[in-house]
Design a protein that fits this description.
By secondary structure, the protein is an alpha/beta fold. The chain contains 8 helices and 29 strands. Strands 17, 19, 21, 22, 24, 25, 27, 28 and 29 form a 9-stranded mixed sheet that branches. The chain has a 7-stranded mixed sheet with strand order 5-4-1-8-13-10-14. The longest helix is centred in the middle third of the chain and has 12 residues. The radius of gyration is 22 Å and the shape is elongated.
């Protein structure tokens, strides 16, 4: 449990343009995941399970559905009279209104909120990753090292390393160099975008960053390198659990498919570390006589008469007679009509796959995204 006063700032304003039509109308953290959740549920649940009492949600891009999902935070036990959860959108000030210009600027613009909370530590989180993490362990390591900032890191495949901020450390895991998305990384130890700061130091450097007209106002590009250059104590905290950056349609599909792997370490059934979400209170799913369902996650309100294999269904999905859904993710309120075949696909919310239509290929490496704009292939 968190004993010292920690305020979490959850960055949830990302557009996620590489997810194509999945984020046309909603922010990336609000994208459905795993049959009943939204991506942001993982960071929110981690914070709640870690004993963090106060959290600010920084929204920006198309926030309506995300705000509706979060509500007053009751699903995560954040509906409190003192502290709890606060939605922090961009706002108009005496200098005029503007969008957040970067991750650091988003926190800087809410410096009054943090001053009012007066925390000892500030935890920066991203709302668009799939993982389970006990942030109290990060805090313990941060305090033991006497760090000014601790960065959660993990090994990533070498071919992906250039997509991340890479930390270079000494034998004590003290950071000696920080490279933001280097063309030729020196190692594959990547920043997860999870930072534990001493609030006093963070406040100072947010102000310095804002005063620099050449800054991109980004933690990875600007604030962290500046702190390192000025001799602040920065340490890496190594995470060895499941973590997925669902930045593309294919990685989104893969992360959903991971849930169907019995060896997957992201255990949704762990009663000691639940993933909470807002539910729709629908009736139970119905598996008709003659249906064939194998290795699937099926949410409430689904009605299945056909074949479902190695797939994930969100709520209120209908699979009619002689239809097949294999290796696919089907969002809520979809109908797969009689005799239709769906392979290796992501079906967006509210879509109808017409009778006899075939989408995707069983043995292909490609992923098919079906939306109101048609079918795209990745």
């Amino acid at each position: 449990m968190i004993e010292s006063k920690v305020v979490a700032m959850l960055l949830a304003g990302g557009q996620g343009s590489r997810l194509k039509t999945l984020t046309k109308k909603i922010a990336k953290p609000a994208v459905p995941f795993g049959g009943k959740y939204r991506i942001i549920d993982f960071a929110l649940s981690n914070a709640a399970n870690s004993g963090i009492d106060d959290i600010g949600i920084l929204t920006q891009y198309k926030p309506y559905l995300l705000n509706s999902h979060i509500g007053i935070g009751s699903s995560w036990d954040y509906d409190r009279n003192m502290g709890g959860l606060r939605i922090l959108p961009p706002f108009t000030s005496e200098d005029g209104g503007r969008w957040y210009t970067g991750t650091a600027n988003a926190v800087y613009e809410n410096i009054d909120f943090l001053d009012e909370m007066n925390p000892e530590y500030v935890l920066i989180l991203s709302g668009d990753h799939i993982y389970k993490m006990d942030y109290s362990q990060l805090l313990v390591a941060h305090k033991e090292k006497g760090a000014d900032v601790s960065i959660a890191v993990m090994e990533v495949p070498w071919e992906d390393a250039s997509r991340f901020g890479i930390v270079n450390v000494n034998q004590e895991n003290k950071i000696v160099e920080f490279e933001e998305k280097p063309d030729n990384p020196k190692n594959n130890m990547a920043s997860m975008g999870i930072y534990m700061f001493n609030w006093k130091e963070l406040r100072e450097y947010l102000i310095k960053d804002d005063e620099n007209p050449d800054s991109d106002n980004d933690f990875g590009k600007n604030v962290l390198p500046m702190m390192l250059e000025e001799g602040k104590k920065m340490y890496a905290w190594v995470f060895d659990g499941y973590w997925k950056d669902v930045g593309t349609v294919k990685s989104y599909w893969e992360a959903n498919m991971d849930l169907l792997d019995p060896l997957n370490t992201l255990d949704l059934y762990d009663k000691n570390w639940r993933i909470y979400t807002r539910t729709r209170n629908l009736p139970p799913q119905y598996l008709a006589r003659g249906s064939a369902v194998k290795n699937a996650l099926v949410n409430e309100g689904c009605y299945i008469r056909g074949t479902l294999r190695n797939s994930i269904l969100f709520s209120d999905v209908i699979i009619e007679e002689e239809a097949e859904v294999i290796d696919s993710v089907v969002h809520s309120d979809c109908v797969i009509e009689k005799g239709a075949k769906v392979y290796r696909a992501v079906i967006s919310e509210g879509m109808n796959v017409k009778a006899g239509e075939v989408i995707g290929q069983k043995d292909s490496e490609k992923i098919y995204l079906v939306s109101e704009e048609g079918i795209s292939v990745e």
